[in-house]
Amino acid sequence: MTTEQESLAPPSPFHGNVRPILNEVMHAIDRLLETDEPTTIDLAGLPFGPGELEHLEAALGTGELSAKLDALGTSRIRETAYPGVWWLEHRNAFDEVVGRYLEITRTPEILSSQDADIIAGRARLEDQFE
Amino acid sequence: MDLLEFAKGPALQVAAYILVAGSIWRLIGILLLKEKPDYSEPRQSAGLLAALKVIYTRSFTAAPFKAATLYPKMLAYVMHIGLFATVFLFVPHIMFFEGFLGIEWPGLPNNIIYLLGVAAVVASFALLVRRLTSPVLKLISNFDDYFSWFVTVLPLITGLMIPVRMGLRYETILAIHILSVALLMIWLPFGKLGHTFLVFVTRGTTGMVFERRGAKT
Amino acid sequence: MTTVDGRHELDREAERLAYKPPEIRHDKQGDMGSDERINKAMHNFVKNFNTQTASYLDGCLHCGMCADACHFHVRTDDPRYTPIWKIELFKRTYKRQVGPFAFFYRLLGLKRQVTIEDLEEWQHLLYDSCTVCGRCSLVCPMGIDIAGLVSMARHGMFKAGLVPHELHEVAKKAAETGSPLGITPDKFEDRADWMADEHDVEIPMDVDEADVLAVMSSIEIQKYPQSIAATAKILNAAGESWTFRTDGFEATNFGMLSGNPEWQKAASLKLIDAAVKIGAKTLVLPECGHAYMALRWMGANMYGKPLPFKVMHISEYLADALNTGKIKVKKVDKSITYHDPCQVSRRGGATQAARDVLNHLTGDFREMPLGGDYNWCCGGGGGVVTIKRADPLRHRVFKLKMDQVEQTEADELVSSCANCRQSFDDSQQHFGWDYTMGSLMEMVAENLEEDGS
Amino acid sequence: MKRTPTVGEVLRAKGVSRRGFLKYCATTASILALPPSMIPRIAEAIENARRPSVIWLSFQECTGCTESLTRSASPTVEGLIFDTISLDYHHTLQAAAGDQAEAARHAAMVENDGGYLVLVDGSIPTGNPGFSTIAGISNVDMLKETVAGAAAVVAIGSCAAFGGIPGANPNPTGAVSVMDLVTDKPVINVPGCPPIPTVMTAVLAHFLTFGAIPDLDKHGRPMTFFGTTIHDRCYRRPFYEQGKFANTFDDEGAKAGWCLYKLGCKGPTTYNACATAKWNSGTSFPIEAGHPCLGCSEPNFWDAGGFYEPLSTGNFDSGEKLAGAAVAGVALGAVAAAAGRRRQAKFTKEG
């Protein structure tokens, strides 16, 4: 089924919804450079046909940095071949994808350590001295 | 019953009855009037073939009149071709016809239909402007002309609103579209839109009478 | 029927043969009240509605394109001259009285009753500004024969006593004396004798049995009497067994033009009876357009059965005689253009005949732009030429014709219709125009090769 | 009345980090179809929200809705929402039975009077109260009693929202929907057969996050999920516009994944989020699997024409009535012509 459909899909990376999304990414990069404003695109809200998401992922490629987050299931945060364009994929404990985002930013917020966690961590560290 | 069900069901059905009954009523009402025989010696035989010939040839303007009638004729062509295409070559419409005719035929891509539909609407408005501004048309026009224009353009516009939506819900606008078509079907037999079928009678008659004389048709 | 009588005398000075302009116009005949006139008009409109007319009257789209074909509208831009508007009252009566939805039209009052003011206004539209030339019938995208409807609408106008003064007088005289110009059988015989002497040609009159019955129009007898001689020359040269008849010589049909079916029928039957009486195989109509429509296409229907003889327009006869070699003509060394009489060419179907004749006569036949079936009318057909008050309009319309003729730059202008010819003569005088309308038949007669047969 | 812990407290107690919480908020925003820029507000709201009490009533239903909701095994992010609500009564899921179960329901009603949510799946028979009872109480009575002190009612699934299969023609039990019976409380309809699990949880998340019911359409459905049609968001839409249609289920068009309009797809008139939210953990949705949309989230979808009839098919009777109309036309025409002729004859006589 899938192989059949893939063979029918046009080879262009600009297939279906991929083209307008890449266009939006380009505009988001401009915004980031000009006004420092980050953009998040929620891929869950977009209608994808079979194989289109894979086309998008392939079209964006893989960049220098990737990270894995373990909180309520794993999350993968990966810079694409286009610096400043990040691919975020949240999974639940059952390893099902619960969210996919494209973030156009210098560093995705979720990579930063959060104050609440820092404070909790420091408390744990302090406990070590007792 | 919601509006769409009403439109697709009783409204369309009653409209179809009126369309069929009204059209036949008008045709029979004309055809059963007295018919006087023509005893003159024909110059040439002219039967059904002559009728068919003129039904075809009058679709085109004779060369001497082309310049004078170019503008309204072009608009009329665009309007009629647009109407024909939107009614009979739009795939959902073909599905509709197939629903009760049992046969289907190839359609055109929707984008082309939309284009032709928009062109038909534009042409219709241009024709209306002409009717409202030309001294000749202002004089000879009556309620029928304006109402027939309205009921013809309405389904075109409501149909074109379906892909655009204009803030209305699909089934609402679809229902309005179908109701506007029902209105067209109800009015068609009675006003000048009857030319849909009368054109064959008038052109055919002239074809037979004048071909018989060997005169210009 | 009429309140005017005996005040009409021939205007022998005018370029067209007609009566002198009436001092007081009587464009209403009879002493009917308005309601009676309305009823008469309506009743006699209604008689005409049959399947053909009904489909026409039901089929109009109000597209207005007929206006672009009508010389009266083209030259004046007056929207009232839109052909379909001219039959508005006729159409309205149809919808109210006979159409498939007449019941509702009456019940709901959808079509206004015709008023006397309407009828008076439409007299101008149905008579003064329509020559029944049928150009509009060719442009109509629905194929409606508007000109035919105008002729029928005139029936109602006539019965309502609403015919323009002069046209009514002419028609009445035709009904009473057998000729619109009051030419009695004796007078016709006199003029034929005169022409026989003048042109040294044998003119058979009142022969009991003949193959061909030739007839004339009063316009020719009175104004172009040489036509009588020309007709005789040609028929003699062709070796026909032929005759004129004093009991059936008048080809014009003013009953038809004015809108009185009874008079139309009487005039046609006179010719038919004469032809039947002598056992004619062919009736040759003179150079007259409406005579062709009246007898060739409507005669049998007046007779109530097919005619036992052929009806030919003189141009058709000439074409046939020349093509078969019955007669021969010398070529004239002149360029010639031809004005098509509407009722013979466009509406009669004999367009080609005149061209055949002209190609025998000259090597330089010049078709007018829009010549043939789309020809502009002379402006005087359908009885219009008789109506004095229509003169300014008719002259205005004639401009189109002048342009058309002038563009050919031909040496000679001919036609095959005496009515067109007098209309041309009159307009020529009005404008001081160079072209004089000639007769196709006379041109053939003048150039016959005597020993060629 | 004991103080219920806030959601933030619950999550922290479970050892969820702030990063995890942000991830949870991002997912909630995604579920609610809110823009990512709303995440900080959501985070703040959820942090301080208190667990609402939820009573789930099941009437004439097939348990498909519950199956759909529980399809995603716990602990999932959606599952967390159920950790953050207090599901006090659900006779399929709860351990208690009989009197104990009913006692739990009454306790929750008393304790959270005016503040609890009632979720209903299944339609309610009105023909005879004996058609469906729980613990000897008829469905109508239980609904009325339970709803009396509720903040809002959520009708889960097409049966509860619109009557569904039990309410389809000929409707032997006289089944009606929740909104037919509950007129004095806000009713949120989450139709579908079954509804999309994330949509169900999103409605709860919205209530939880904003303490109010979401914007509803004319059928009482949250606009966020039922605001656009399947057709509007369908990845096969371009084929519709190009006029490329599957004519049968096994032709080339079907294999190429062309539009299913001709095979009866109700996508254009169906408002639901299937095309984007998708099913089975985002795997696909019916059209992606090659089957036309049945329109299950629309009122009376069982009775709204055949599943495989194209949408634009008119609901015509047989041709017999049309033939009758034609005969009537002939008769009317003949009468009209006869009347016309009679008038002509009369006028001819009168001259």
How would you describe the overall organization of this protein?
- The complex is a heterotetramer of chains A (130), B (217), C (453) and D (351).
- Chain A has 130 residues and is an alpha+beta fold.
- Chain A has helices at 2-8, 18-35, 52-60, 115-128; strands spanning 39-42, 66-70, 74-79, 85-91, 97-104.
- A 5-stranded antiparallel beta sheet of chain A has the order 1-5-4-3-2.
- Chain A is globular and about 60 Å long.
- Chain B has one domain (3-25, 64-197): Transmembrane di-heme cytochromes, Chain C (Fumarate Reductase Cytochrome B subunit).
- Helices cover 76% and strands 0% of the residues of chain B.
- In chain B, α1 packs parallel to α8 (170-187), α3 packs across α5 and α7 (143-164) runs antiparallel to α8 (170-187).
- Chain D has 2 domains: 51-224, 3-Layer(aba) Sandwich (Rossmann fold), CATH 3.40.50.700; 228-340, Cytochrome-c3 Hydrogenase, Chain A, domain 2.
- Chain D contains 16 helices and 9 strands.
- In chain D, a hairpin with a 2-residue loop joins β5 and β6.
- The longest helix of chain D has 32 residues, at 319-350.
- The N and C termini of chain D lie far apart (103 Å).
- Residues 73-78 of chain D have low confidence and may be disordered.
- Chains B and C meet through α1, α3, α6 and α9 of B and α2, α8 and α17 of C.
